[in-house]
Automatic annotation (TrEMBL), chain A:
MF terms in GO: phosphorelay response regulator activity; protein-glutamate methylesterase activity
PROSITE patterns (UniProt xref): CHEB
UniProt protein name: protein-glutamate methylesterase
Alphabetical list of CDD domains matching this protein: CheB (cd16433)
GO biological processes: chemotaxis
From TrEMBL, chain B:
Signal sequence region: none
Native organism: Pedobacter quisquiliarum
Protein name (database record): Chemotaxis protein R
Any one GO MF annotation of this record: S-adenosylmethionine-dependent methyltransferase activity
Residue ranges constituting the CheR-type methyltransferase domain according to the UniProt record: 1-251
Pfam family of the protein (one): CheR
Source superkingdom: Bacteria
Length: 187, 273
C-alpha cells in the first residue's frame, strides 16, 4: 500500500454537504494534511472554515500564503485565489485569470500537488456542475498518485465526478457513507 | 498541459538568462506560480523545444517583452475588495488630508485600475488637487495601457457595484465617457497620476510617501524577496504613513513590522515613530 502524504479534495455545487457528513467521522490523528478547494462566491470568506470547524476535532484553517503544510490539519483554499503547492511544502496563492470559470480552480491545485507529492498524493473530486478538476486528476495519475471521485449516482450534482470517471482511470468511486473510512485507512 | 514537461533545472537556466541578458531577476519569485505561467506561455506559443523557447527569449528582445507581459499576472479591477477602499475613504485618506502635499505610491499597478480608483476617492474627498499618485510596474506594456485610461465597458457594471459598496455615492458613470466598447476615464483623474516603470526586485526607493499600496504582488514572491521588498517600502514611507497589502498578504513576519501597527479591519499597517 502506498503512503499518503496529502489528500486534496475538490468540489463545487453540492460538495459542501458531503464535507459536512464526512468530517465528523475522520480520525483525529490523521497522518497527512487535507487540502480543500471548493468553488464559492468571492466575499463569503471565513464562513466555510468556520462551518467545517464545527464538524471535526481536527484543526481547520483557511490557507495563509507561504504557510507550511502540516499533517493532521484541514486547509481551506481562500476564495478568489488559486492555491498552489511549492516544493518546500508551503502554500502559494495566485490571483491570475480564472480557469474553468473558477478561482480557486481545482485543476491548479491538483496539478501543482501532483508535481510535488507525486505517487504519495490522493485527490478526490466531489459533486459539481463543471469539469474543473478533471485535467488535474489526469496529472495526478500521470505522476503516479491516486484519483478518487464521489460516486456520481450518490452526488447532488453528478456532472463533475462523472466527467472524471469518463476521462480518467479512477482508483475508487465512493459513496458519502464510505468516504470517511476510506480516508482514515489512508493514514 | 496535464503533465509538466519543463523541469526545475530548465526554469533555473531560463531565469539565469533573463538576469544576465536583461537584468530582470525572477529568481525570488514563488516557483509554483512562475512555473505555471512559463508552462502556459510555452504551450500557448507552441514552442518546439525548451531549448528553442529559451534561445528565443534570450535573443529576441521583442519576444522577451511578450514573455514578461505573459508571465506577470495582470488581473485587477477597480475598487477591488470594496471594504478596503471604504477604509481608505473613511479612515486613511482623511488623516492624510492634513498634509500640504499627499504622495501615494501604487506599486505593481498593472493596467491602472487601482490608480484611477484612488483618484476617484481623492477627488470625492477634495484632496486630488494636492495629491500625486505614483503608479509603477515592471511591465512597460501595462503602463502604456494604464496611461490611456481606457477600460472595458463591459466591466463597468461590476466596478460600479464595487464603487457603491466601497461607500461611493455618485453616479459611477459620471467618471467616464463610453466610446464603443470602451470607457474612457476623465482626464482630470489621470492628471495627478505619474506612471513609471519600477522593478521591486532590483530598483531602489525613489521618494517618500504617506501611503503605499502594493496589493496582490507579494504573493508572487518567496519569503526572502517579500522581506526585502517590505524593507524597500519601509525606506519609502514617512513616519505615520500607511502600507496597504492584499487581503491574503502580511508584513508580520518581517523584522520592521514591530514599528508598525495594523488597522484592525484591513491589511493596512501604520508606521509609528
Amino acid at each position: 500500500m502506498k503512503t499518503c502524504e496529502a489528500l486534496v479534495i475538490g468540489g463545487s455545487a453540492g460538495s459542501l454537504d458531503v464535507l459536512l457528513k464526512v468530517l465528523p467521522d475522520l480520525r483525529p490523528d490523521l497522518s497527512f494534511p487535507i487540502i480543500i478547494v471548493i468553488h464559492r462566491k468571492h466575499g463569503a470568506d471565513s464562513l466555510l472554515p468556520d462551518l467545517l470547524k464545527g464538524r471535526t476535532t481536527l484543526n481547520v484553517k483557511e490557507v495563509e500564503e507561504k504557510e507550511h503544510i502540516l499533517a493532521g490539519t484541514i486547509y481551506v483554499a481562500p476564495s478568489d485565489y488559486h492555491l498552489l503547492i511549492e516544493q518546500d511544502r508551503t502554500f502559494s496563492l495566485d490571483s491570475s485569470e480564472k480557469i474553468n470559470y473558477s478561482r480557486p480552480s481545482i485543476d491548479v491545485t491538483f496539478q501543482t500537488a501532483a508535481e510535488i507529492y507525486q505517487d504519495k498524493l490522493v485527490c478526490m473530486l466531489l459533486s459539481g456542475s463543471n469539469a474543473d478538476g478533471v485535467n488535474g486528476l489526469k496529472a495526478v495519475k500521470a505522476y503516479g498518485g491516486r484519483a478518487l471521485i464521489q460516486n456520481p449516482a450518490d452526488a447532488q450534482v453528478p456532472y463533475m465526478p462523472a466527467q472524471a470517471a469518463q476521462n480518467v482511470v479512477i482508483d475508487a468511486s465512493l459513496n458519502i457513507e464510505d468516504t470517511a473510512e476510506f480516508i482514515n485507512l489512508l493514514s | 498541459m496535464e503533465v509538466t514537461v519543463i523541469t526545475e533545472e530548465q526554469i533555473d537556466a531560463l531565469l539565469a538568462d533573463l538576469l544576465e541578458r536583461y537584468g530582470y531577476d525572477f529568481t525570488g519569485y514563488s516557483k509554483a506560480s512562475l512555473k505555471r505561467r512559463i508552462q502556459r506561455l510555452y504551450s500557448l506559443d507552441k514552442a518546439l523545444s525548451f531549448a528553442e523557447f529559451r534561445f528565443k527569449i534570450a535573443n529576441e528582445p521583442l519576444y522577451f517583452k511578450r514573455f514578461v507581459e505573459q508571465i506577470t499576472v495582470n488581473v485587477t479591477e477597480m475598487f477591488r475588495d470594496p471594504t478596503f477602499f471604504k477604509t481608505l475613504r473613511n479612515e486613511v485618506l482623511p488623516k492624510l488630508g492634513t498634509y500640504p502635499l499627499i504622495r501615494i505610491w501604487i506599486a505593481g499597478c498593472s493596467t491602472g485600475e487601482e490608480a484611477y480608483s484612488m483618484c476617484i476617492l481623492l477627488q470625492e474627498l477634495g484632496l486630488l488637487q494636492k495629491s500625486l499618485v505614483y503608479a509603477t510596474d515592471l511591465n512597460p506594456a501595462v503602463l502604456e495601457k494604464a496611461a490611456q485610461g481606457f477600460f472595458g465597458l463591459s466591466q463597468m457594471k461590476q466596478y460600479s457595484e464595487n464603487y457603491i459598496q466601497s461607500g461611493g455615492s455618485k453616479e459611477f458613470s459620471s467618471y467616464y465617457t463610453a466610446k464603443y466598447s470602451l470607457a474612457k476615464f476623465n482626464d482630470d483623474l489621470r492628471s495627478k497620476i505619474i506612471f513609471s516603470t519600477h522593478n521591486l526586485v532590483s530598483d531602489r526607493s525613489f521618494n517618500e510617501f504617506q501611503l503605499i499600496l502594493c496589493r496582490n504582488v507579494l504573493i508572487y514572491f518567496d519569503r526572502d524577496l517579500q522581506n526585502k521588498v517590505i524593507g524597500l517600502f519601509d525606506d519609502s514611507l514617512e513616519e505615520l504613513g500607511y502600507l496597504a497589502l492584499g487581503s491574503k498578504e502580511t508584513m508580520e513576519f518581517s523584522g520592521v513590522s514591530k514599528r508598525y501597527r495594523r488597522l484592525p479591519s484591513d491589511k493596512i499597517w501604520r508606521k509609528m515613530n
